[in-house]
Amino acid sequence: MLYQNRFGHFNFSKALLLGGVCTAILTGCNQSAQDTSTTDAATTDAATAMKTVAITAIVEHPALDDVRKGVIDELNEAGFKDGENLTVNFQSAQGNTATAGQIAKQFVADAPDVIVAIATPSAQSVAASTSSIPMVFSAVTDPVTAKLVSKLDGSGTNVTGASDALPYEPQIELMRQIIPDLKNVGYVYSPGEVNSTIILKNLKEKLTPLGINVHEAPAQRSNDIAMAARSLEGKVDMIYTSTDNNVVSAYESLYQIAKESKIPLIASDTSSVERGAVAALGVNYYELGRETGKIVVRILNGEKAGAIPVYTPQKLDLYVSPNHAKEEGITLPQAVIDKAKEVVE
């Protein structure tokens, strides 16, 4: 557009100047809109970016499998769906600590958003392999003694998780309710597993003042479990089993010895009742997995692992099997059966 001055002549200078200003304004507006569009796209990409969670377990058995299922179900419920906006990579060490170390190194090389390590040996392997990738352990009885964290209320490092630590008093009360004249307790365990050696130490400290002896039967491998149990024949009134991974993996062989020797099995892993224990008072490992999954979700949403306290369950479930009790030479008191959350036939 051209403008006339008061003499009726066109002022081309002003016209050119105005045109330049308009061009600059339009260009600026277009650039601003483009910048905003780019920023919005980047924000959307960040919100929908694919996340990766690597999960490893020292071995596969019902309790640890329940933990893994609980983690994945919790992630799914929180909107992190495997195959959509989440990639889950699971590897089992098949009971081999050397394999656990190899898996840990491979996971660190893959650089996932979070590594979940189920059971103490796998957790120790991962913790030794990275100090930067967020790690969430689960089913670890004593993470402080296992040197995974220095304290439970927030480690300040890349590590947090969920413990399956149990109070001993209810366990001992259950033992004495089932066998009132209890004098000798057998304990089959893996000497190389920190969780199991801690439990052995604590059992002795709790039971000795009550006049109850603890007879230990170490088994280095799952193949040694039956022989270790057989060594307790004629020496003990019952065998107590913890969440020792080798023992739980070979529970059926332990059950066979218990039936032949008439030695009742009392466990701290509720899934062991279906597999031969007469009773178990322990945590629900699926629910422990869900709590572990909640921690993973918090990290995926931006929280620092070291700022999240370690979760410890407060509720214990009692499972019993009157049939297994009969097979192993005892009758379960009705008072114990009445308190059970589940009676396994």
Describe this structure in words.
- The chain has 345 residues and is of the alpha/beta class.
- 44% of the residues lie in helices and 17% in strands.
- It has twelve helices and twelve strands.
- It has helices spanning 12-47, 62-77, 97-110, 120-129, 168-178, 194-207, 225-230, 245-249, 251-261, 285-300, 322-327, 334-339, and strands at residues 51-57, 86-92, 114-118, 135-140, 159-163, 184-189, 213-218, 238-241, 265-267, 279-282, 317-320, 342-343.
- The strands form two sheets. The chain has a seven-stranded mixed β-sheet.
- Strand 1 (51-57), helix 2 (62-77) and strand 2 form a beta-alpha-beta unit.
- It is elongated and about 60 Å long.
- Residues 1-29 and 31-47 have low confidence and may be disordered.
Note the total helix count: 12
Uncertain regions spanning at least 5 consecutive residues = 1-29, 31-47
Main β-sheet: number of strands, strand sense, barrel status? 7 strands, mixed
How many whole angstroms does the radius of gyration measure? 30 Å
- Beta-strand content bin: 15-25%
Number of strands: 12
Distance between the termini: 95 Å
Shape descriptor: elongated
